[in-house]
Amino acid sequence: MLFVKQDVDVDEIVAGTRKWDDQYLGSMIHAVELYEDRRKVKQVIQEFLSGRNKRAFKLTNPSSKRIWLRELLIALYSNDTWRKESGAQMPKDNPISYPYIEGRLSLMAGLKEGRVVCALVTFIDESWACPDTAIEFDLTRAKQKVRNALTGLSFIATFEAAYYVNEKWKKNGKEGNVISFHCHAVVWATHYSQLARRRKRIKPRFRPILGSKTGVRFDALRKTDDVCRAVCYQAKMPARGYRTVVKPNGKKTQKPAKLSFWQRYQLFKALQQYDLLDFWLAGGEGKKIFGAARKKLAEHRRKHRERELRMLQPRFLNHRLHESRAF
Predict the structure, then answer these.
(1) Which of 146, 172, 190, 168 is closest to 279 using CA atoms?
(2) Dihedral of CA 200/206/207/213: which sign?
(3) Which of 35, 105, 215, 281 is deepest in the core (most CB within 10 A)?
(4) Which domain range does residue 40 map to?
């Protein structure tokens, strides 16, 4: 979809994420082939990784992620394209299926007009870390912790898992390489002072790990392009792990690192229980944007269910049986 006024091609943006998605998919399929029960390999790949099952929206499926990213970006830019005024209707020559935001300035328009400030906020907490030998994450409590931290602000957020190949972690008697679940949130308000005060207030609530001084990081997003890149970053698949490196001044930094196929498989098994949207949350004006995109996903899910039902019809099954015999 092309938004002419913003000179933005959402489909092109989404296509740009394909490189890493393909890298993730190829590695993950091979990991499943190596370590999954041989009797279940085909079924597992079909259910959790196959493009044919993308509208089931499993968290582990990169094809599902691209559909979600597209709908989320369209919702962001659609809010900016038209804002409802009293009695105003959308022009017929530019139909947009998303609801308007009434009475408030949208994120993208606000950034362009200098009336909204925005940041990518990263949350890390010691309680969200676990060893790869016993991967566990209390998602419900973690989401509530982020909601409490961002109460009164507008945001769209998601969680992801960072796999560190050279850092050990011990929890509940289990030890292994650390997996750090963390949250990236696109947060906006009307003044930087609001974000600065919030950062100061919530920093003590999040306990950092791996030598970091803080569990809360704010990175300013000054342009609409910055927001777009941040949303793509939020939606990325775990194609790579991380390695910590000590700098000459003694501080730690992190660099991308390759994951072994066994490490990929461990992470895959831990994440396959989740629906894609389980890891996402929103607040304030972000709820409207998130809700519009989620409504679109519901339409995709409905089509998926209809397809599944058609495949169970006797006529379809008989046709498939006939094809297999002919072959």
Answers:
(1) 146
(2) negative
(3) 281
(4) 2-326
Residue 16 carries which side chain, given as an amino acid letter? G
- The pLDDT tens digits of the residues spanning 100-123 come to 333 345 799 899 889 999 999 999
Structurally, the chain folds into a number of domains equal to 1
pLDDT digits (tens, 9 = 90+) for 273-308: 999 999 999 999 999 999 999 999 999 999 877 877
Query: Which secondary-structure segment (H or E) carries 141?
Result: helix 139-149
pLDDT band at 94 (very low <50, low <70, confident <90, very high): very low
Main-chain dihedrals φ then ψ at residue 125, nearest 5 degrees: -145, 140
Interhelix angle 41-48/18-35, rounded to 10 degrees, is 160
Taking CA 150 as the corner, what is the angle to CA 68 and CA 158, rounded to the nearest 5 degrees?
25
Give yes or no for a contact between 292 and 99, defined as CB atoms under 8 angstroms apart: yes
Dist. CA 247–CA 258, nearest whole Å: 20
Reported pTM: 0.86
The amino acid occupying position 140 is: T
Other CB atoms within 10 A of residue 302 CB: 11
Please, are residues 209 and 178 in contact by the beta-carbon 8 Å criterion?
Answer: yes
Asked if residue 308 lies in contact with residue 52, where contact means CB atoms within 8 angstroms, the answer is no
